[in-house]
Amino acid sequence: MPLSCLVRLITQILCFALFLGIASCASVSHQSMPEEGSTELGLLKKKCTICHGLPHPKRHTASEWDNLLIMMTERMNEKNISYTSVEMTQIKSYLQRNAR
């Protein structure tokens, strides 16, 4: 196979993979979330979507959420996003209850 055909094939594969990645990220907002209507989910939507899209709890395990929440609280502090310890406890509880 000539090099130009191989480059074209690889480019097409990478473009398709990128499309799938973007499509899967966009579809997260349309997935049903566990405990729809709960206070904890409302808080997650309110606080976590300030900087990024709404993460589905099944995206990570409970222990992964623990580590991510530590990093996210640091980021929230850097960006002067207010939250209380009670709010973070509620968010953590929701994510851990519904983790994969």
Overall description:
The chain contains 4 helices and no strands. It is an all-alpha fold. α2 packs across α4 and α3 runs antiparallel to α4.
Q: What is this structure's SSE topology?
A:
Elements (H helix, E strand, L loop, with lengths): L2 H26 L10 H10 L13 H17 L6 H13 L3
Helix percentage: 55-70%
Q: What is the N-to-C succession of helices and strands?
A: HHHH
| Radius of gyration from CA coordinates | 18 Å
What proportion strand?
under 5%
Q: Separation of termini?
A: 44 Å
Number of helices: 4
Taken from the alpha-carbon principal axes, the silhouette is elongated
The chain-level structural class is: mainly alpha
Largest sheet entry: none
| DSSP E strands, number | 0
Question: Average pLDDT value?
Answer: 86
Report the uncertain regions: none
